[in-house]
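Progress narrative, Year 2. Work on ABC transporter ATP-binding protein/permease from Dyella lutea advanced from sequence curation to structure prediction during this period.
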Amino acid sequence: MGRGRHQPPPAPKSLRERFAALRNVPAFLHSIWTTSRWMTLTSVLLRLVRALLPVVTLYVGKLIVDEVVHQVRLGGFRGDLTAALHDGRFDHLATLLALEFALAVLADLLGRVVAMVDSLLGERYADLTSIRLMEHAASLDLEDFEDADLQDQLDRARRQIAGRSSLLSQLLQQAQDAITLVSFAVGLAVYAPWLIVLLAVALVPAFLGEFHFNAQSYAVNYQWTPERRELDYLRMVGASASNAKEVKSFGLNRFLIDRYRVLSQSIYQANRRIALRRAGWGGLFTTLGTLGYYAAYAFIAWRTVTGAFSIGDLTFLSTSFRRLRTLLETLFTGFSQVAGQALYLDDLFSFFRIQPEILSPPNPRQFPRPLREGFVFEDVGFRYPDAERWAVRHLSFTLRAGEVLALVGENGAGKTTLVKLLSRLYDPDEGRILLDGHPLAEYDLEDLRLNIGVIFQDFVRYYFNASDNIAVGRIEAREDEPRISDAAQRSLADQVIGKLPKGYAQMLGKLFKGGVDLSGGEWQKVAIARAYMRDAPLLILDEPTAALDARSEYEVFQRFKELSRGKTAVIISHRFSTVRMADRIIVLEGGRVAESGSHEELIAAGGHYAELFELQAAGYR
Ligand SMILES: Nc1ncnc2c1ncn2[C@@H]1O[C@H](COP(=O)(O)OP(=O)(O)OP(=O)(O)O)[C@@H](O)[C@H]1O
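Result:
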């Protein structure tokens, strides 16, 4: 068993590690590409055109200024506009202006289309990745979900999905900006190449600063994931309908709010420290950049005064410089943001890399129908991950085909664990479990679970309608109304549903509008109907009758016994009135079998069972 197998990526430290996170970018781009090829292609192509527009527009602007200056030199114009338009004096200028206008319109239109495609693609990507996340989560072992590290990682991955779609636009925008930058740089290089170097040198500190602080933000975010999850939990406990009853009557609100306040304050402080340092250093680095820009500006102005550059050149160069500086800045900060986000991709991708260990073998056996021998536990031992104590150990017994077996034992004796091992939610650490003579691990996992109908004591109260709440027992038969009402009849749930305003269509629970809540016992009847819905050869009820009144429990169990004729059944209960009806009773103590036999045999033996029975009976006298 893979204990502690989820090694989440450690909080990144060195610059190299931060760069290393960029290795996730190709995988990310690949998943974008598979999300929608044509949308990705459209976005890329349009951005390519869009990238070259600024320099062309600016160059046309320069030509306009030069033309205007030329016209002014010719003595300006004060005559008749119609005549001037006719003699073609302004044709060149008019063409340039029209071209500039067309370029501006094109840039706007392209920008809008690109934004639209990006947002659609981003949404699609987020949806598909969420589905993939759910699918992958569904494939993992129960043990995985009990691991706090995995919960943290899953939480980060989940939070990142929504944000990651903006990573796409950011990446593409980066590429677009880079092309625009190169086009400006080429234009500039023709005039004064070393100015570009000056700009780059002035901007490098800002880039490194951003990079550093992004990684620090991530580190803070990373280290505080458990606390952030606790915040979510506190918010949920303090503000959810299902908890309101207890929270109110215990007067827990103040406690919860104070705990929230203290915790959120520490996260805020950590973030504030980074924000302050980031603003301080960022301000200094930006000033350096501004200094570089004005040095370059002064140089261009000087060269224009001395006549080396035209006024059009001055406009072109100064604007090019301003744009170059902004572009470089956006590129640098954008790059460090991309690298920052790539760190979060680590969480997502490493979550996808976790593999379940409880799997079907290559050539699996099918569940034996009919069951011939039953289940045999041979010296089975199991310890929960990170637990010091064994939950069950040296556990040996047989669950014979066709019998109704009751499991009794004090809290923590290992009854539920036994059921989890039986349905292969966990694999034993020691010993083995045989089903009709073959290890459980040789059977097809899905088929095995399909043939075992378990209702756990902490069964789920789905906020679905009554019909679906029963249908979850065999969701493929969701439309099979007779089957659902039949299952409800067997578990006595039909009486509950009959009283609901909308019958089977009634939404249960208080989460959604129009929902009706049920009492604990009524919920149990609905849950037990799931077992009948499943119609499996092995039925297991893990304390599902605890909240039923005495009459209901008697009736439910009587029916259970009748209806499970020809099937194998396991029932866990603390009520001896129920337990005594079983064919055989196993008493668990400290994770192993202490006694076994029928009610009468065990009473006669005068052991632990007899003692527990006597205790309960005394309570009723
Ligand atoms: N998910 C878990 N992780 C770690 N330890 C667990 C987990 N579930 C149960 N245990 C421990 O394993 C032991 C057996 O628990 P189990 O739930 O099987 O008892 P049980 O007999 O069903 O008890 P109860 O009558 O209270 O339902 C207990 O000591 C319990 O603390």
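The chain has a mean pLDDT of 85. DSSP finds 22 helices and ten strands in the chain.
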